[in-house]
Structures are given as C-alpha cells and as structure tokens.
Amino acid sequence: MKKIRTIIFVALLIGILFGISGVINHVYLKKSNMVTGREENLAGLQKEEDNTIDLLVLGDSESYTSISTMMLWKEDGISSYIGAQSGQQIQETYYMLKQALQTQKPKLVMLETHVLFRDNAGMDAYRSVMEENAMYHFSVFRYHNIWKRLLSSNIGDDRQFFKGFRVRDSVAPYDGGDYMQETTVKKQMTGFVKNYLQQIIDICKENDIPILFYSAPSPVNYNYQKHNTLIEYTENAGIPYVDLNMMTSELGIDWTKDTLDHGDHLNIYGAQKVTKYMRKYLEENYNLPDHRGQQKYKDWDVLEDQYEKRLLTLKV
C-alpha cells in the first residue's frame, strides 16, 4: 500500500506540474514580454511561429551584442533569432537548442564560443544540469516569477526587443592595446564543456543542421590561447570557425567607439560592423532563404521599421 500511495502521489505531482506549466505557457506565449531577465530570449523564441527561424544564434551575452537580427533581415531577408542568456553556461546552451527544436527547424546554428571557456566543474555544475532538465520539462520552474508581472499594472508591448537583439548605444572605450598576442599556449576547455558541446554537435547532425562557431571581438574575453584551442578543436571536428578577434582591423573596429563597456561587449556600432562581415560570410557559404515580402513574415517588416526608428536616435 505504501508503494501504491507513493506512486499515486508522484503521478499527481507530475500532473499538477504539467497543469501549472500549461497555464504559464499559455500566458507567456501570449505576452512574452512578461518574462524578463535571463529567460527573456527563450520566452520570445517559444513565441515565434513554428518553422520560421532559419538562423539560430546561441551563446552568452557576446552573441546578443554582436549580431543584429534586423540588419540580417533588412539586407538579406534572413530570419534569425538569438537564443542567448547573460552568463550562459554550456548546459543552458544545450537546453536552449533542444527547446528551439521543439518548434523550429533552423537551417544553420551559429555558436558564439565564449560559453566554451566558462568554468563548469563540481557539484554546482551537475546541480545546474538537474535544474535545467527540470525547467525544460516543467516551465513552472523556469517562469515561476511570472506571477509578479501578472499582478503588475505595468505590462506593455516591448518594442525594443528585436528577435533576441537589443540596440545598445552606450560607449565606454577600450584602451588596452593589442590583446591577441601570438603564442603556442592553449586555454583548455573542461571535460564537462566538451561533453555538452559534443551533445550539441550531435543534435545538429541528427537534425541535418550545419553548425558554425564564431568568436565576437572582445578584448576582455578573448586571447590567442583560446584562439589556438578553438582552431584545433574545430579542425578536428570539421566545423567552420570564424574568429573575429583576428580581424578587427578588417572589420573596422574602433575600440574608442565600438564597445559599450571597455572591451567586454560590442555596442550597436560594433555589432553593425560584425553583422556586415557575417552577412557576406553567410552569403558565400550558406544558402539561407530570403523571406522578405512573404506574408508569414510580415511581423519582421514591422520590427524592421521600429529598428530603423531606434537607429535614428543613436548618439553618433
């Protein structure tokens, strides 16, 4: 009898969690701007119409400050989305991809590589894995704070959210000089990171999705040691890799104007330069469709108009 009661209790608990998660899904998918903070990009991604995202960008804040989704749309009609979080860890990248594939079939996944050098070790890492797994299956755990927004009268449409990208025009110069000093030393990735990275690669292969690694320009976060490691890894894995830290002159990066926080992240001016280069790279190496003018993508045109108006307000 004790075993039966335990089974019934667990079944009821799971049913309740599924039920509450269903209610939350209905609420935040109707108004994704009710979700703020680290989960905002994921909530927005889950709101996207099925099978409309062709380019999925994954990573931490280096990704959502380096690729302008609206610039890709305006110039080439590429439907891109940035599934990123501040301080994203590799297991979060893995579950972000799994969540995206529930409703999307991207034609390309771009992974910003800073996430590969975040220390993940010990019990904290495995506890995070358990938490991510629980949140993946039961959204009540991920979006439990949504009730605070439900009770707030300040809920409106957020017109500054552009498919995972935001316009950041603050300027705080970097003046540390050349940060890519050549060396043969390598900055190793942890075994934990390598394990989840391989799972990400395997998922992409299983779904016939090419994967591209790229490193956004960032004196704070990149150096030649990481470059060496990434070159070796991508060559062995047969994965294309673009290290933009090795071509800042070609990009036209001006560290007195193109960073918002002393070389940690790019601002909108730096992001425009990176996106301009990546547009050309994508055009030459991938066959991403142009969806401009298609009825299914009319909301992208609305966002583009809002984006252009926002650009008119830039300081320089």
Provide a descriptive summary of the structure in words:
The structure is a single chain. This protein is α/β, with parallel strands linked by helices. The chain has a single domain, classed as SGNH hydrolase (Rossmann fold), CATH 3.40.50. 48% of the residues lie in helices and 7% in strands. The chain is built from 13 helices and five strands. Helix 10 links the parallel strand 4 and strand 5. The longest helix is centred in the first third of the chain and has 29 residues. The chain is globular, with a radius of gyration of 20 Å. About 4% of the residues have low confidence.
Strand order of the largest sheet: 2-1-3-4-5
Q: What integer is the average pLDDT? A: 85
Q: Which word captures the global form? A: globular
Strand content: 5-15%
N-C termini distance: 73 Å
SS-based class: alpha/beta
The total tally of domains equals 1
What's this entry about, in short?
The protein has helices spanning 2-30, 40-47, 61-64, 69-76, 90-100, 122-137, 139-142, 146-150, 191-206, 224-237, 248-251, 268-285, 298-311; strands at residues 55-59, 80-84, 108-112, 211-215, 241-243.
